[in-house]
């Protein structure tokens, strides 16, 4: 069964706890098999990390109050969901990167820009000899990571560049999952230049931006017309159209961009190799050597 087919199971009309645990076990199997195949003895065990508390999820991944309450409802299976979705995202990314000749075996350092509670970064602890770094503008997130994720290095960054560490060309892979969807337009190009600075020649940057599914879910027809005309929409925490996480201060803005604007902004900083559609579209960018 493919991950796409497994995701379709999650739409079945019965309590999610009946789905999330078997899905988590399925993704765990796929993930471990992938690492063993690629890394052999350098695929190592790591303790499973507990899911973050509700107050941190409120700041990082809540579109609205109803969704948040549902995720933490008794019997929903939030711990399995949190773990499984993180690994499923990485599995998909590994497959995309391999199509562009990225070699997991030669990766020496990875940076999670906007690491949040380490939903993705925690799974890199299964790769031996890897430098794992997370940075976030919210100190509550990096504190959580420091307390619960062994074997990682955490930093706090400001809302504007630069990053908290001065070394250049340090990382083979940098990723920003659901981060540029909250970085205001005037800061996107400066941040892309900063991430380019810390990438090694030939290194890859993965970014997600709001895809067509999110646009159809969260934008009204008149908002879509504004987006088409301007190339972007920007909602602050004071706007009623902003997501719950943005309204409570977890991020300062919600950002929507047209495909043409995404190609212009991101392609001006690095070589844009791929633009993969999804709920959040995935951009595969490379710093040419």
Describe the structure.
There is one protein chain. The chain has 289 residues and is α/β, with parallel strands linked by helices. It has a domain at 158-289: Rossmann fold, CATH 3.40.50.150. Helices cover 42% and strands 19% of the residues. It contains 11 helices and 9 strands. The strands form 2 sheets. It has a 7-stranded mixed sheet, with helices on both faces. A two-stranded antiparallel sheet has the order 6-7. The model is unreliable at 1-15 (pLDDT under 50).
Summarize the structure.
This protein is α/β, with parallel strands linked by helices and 289 residues long.
Contiguous low-pLDDT stretches (5 residues minimum) are 1-15
CATH architecture of the domain at 158-289: 3-Layer(aba) Sandwich
What is the makeup of the main sheet? 7 strands, mixed
> Within the largest sheet, what's the order of strands?
3-2-1-4-5-9-8
Task: Assign an overall shape.
Answer: globular
CATH topology of the domain at 158-289: Rossmann fold
- Tell me the number of strands: 9
Give the topology string: H per helix, E per strand: HHHHHEEHEEHEHHEHEHEE
Identify the quaternary structure here. Answer: single chain
Tell me the helix content. 40-55%
Quote the average pLDDT.
92
| Backbone structural class | alpha/beta
Distance between the termini: 38 Å
- Rounded to an integer, what's the Rg over CA atoms? 18 Å
What's the helix count?
Answer: 11
**Approximate strand percentage:** 15-25%
């Amino acid at each position: 069964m493919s991950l796409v087919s497994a995701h379709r199971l999650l739409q079945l009309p019965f309590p999610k706890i009946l789905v999330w645990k078997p899905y988590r076990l399925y993704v765990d199997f796929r993930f471990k098999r992938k690492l063993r195949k690629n890394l052999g003895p350098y695929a190592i065990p790591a303790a499973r990390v507990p899911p973050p508390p509700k107050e941190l999820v409120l700041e990082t991944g809540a579109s609205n109050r109803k969704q948040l309450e549902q995720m933490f409802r008794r019997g929903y299976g939030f711990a399995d969901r949190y773990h499984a979705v993180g690994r499923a995202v990485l599995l998909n990314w590994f497959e995309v990167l391999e199509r562009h000749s990225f070699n997991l075996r030669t990766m020496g350092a990875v940076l999670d820009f906007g690491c949040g509670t380490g939903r993705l970064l925690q799974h890199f602890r299964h790769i031996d000899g890897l430098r794992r770094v997370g940075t976030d503008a919210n100190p509550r997130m990096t504190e959580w990571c420091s307390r619960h994720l062994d074997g990682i290095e955490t930093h706090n960054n400001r809302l504007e560049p630069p990053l908290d560490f001065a070394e250049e060309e340090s990382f083979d892979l940098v990723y920003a999952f659901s981060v540029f969807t909250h970085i205001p337009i005037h800061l996107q190009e400066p941040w892309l230049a900063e991430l380019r600075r810390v990438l090694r020649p030939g290194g890859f940057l993965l970014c997600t931006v709001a895809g067509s599914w999110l646009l159809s879910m969260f934008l009204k027809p008149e908002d879509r017309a504004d987006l088409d005309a301007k190339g972007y929409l920007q909602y602050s925490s004071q706007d009623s159209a902003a997501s719950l996480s943005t309204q409570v201060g977890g991020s300062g803005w919600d950002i929507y961009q047209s495909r043409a604007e995404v190609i212009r902004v991101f392609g001006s900083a690095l070589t844009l190799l791929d633009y993969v559609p999804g709920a959040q579209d995935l951009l595969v960018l490379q710093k040419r050597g």
